[in-house]
Design goal:
It is built from 1 helix and 3 strands; from the N terminus they run βαββ. It has a 3-stranded antiparallel β-sheet with strand order 1-3-2, covered by helices on one side.
Length: 57
């Protein structure tokens, strides 16, 4: 199962912290990040996939 997350209000000072926080939060729910894109300068879209860590699916 895939899940898309929009992160808003990012700046050059907090971009790393906001993305890392979301990745850590999703990892607790067994999601792994698959891709990330920026929309302009204040938003980022992260796509996660749920599954086993060693799974090839």
């Amino acid at each position: 199962m895939y899940k898309t997350v929009l992160i808003e209000g990012i700046t050059t000072e907090n971009v790393t912290e906001k993305i890392n926080d979301k990745v850590t939060e999703m990892k607790k729910e067994s999601y792994q990040i698959k891709t990330m894109s920026f929309l302009g300068t204040e938003r980022a879209v992260l796509v996660f996939k749920k599954g086993l860590k060693s799974s090839l699916l």
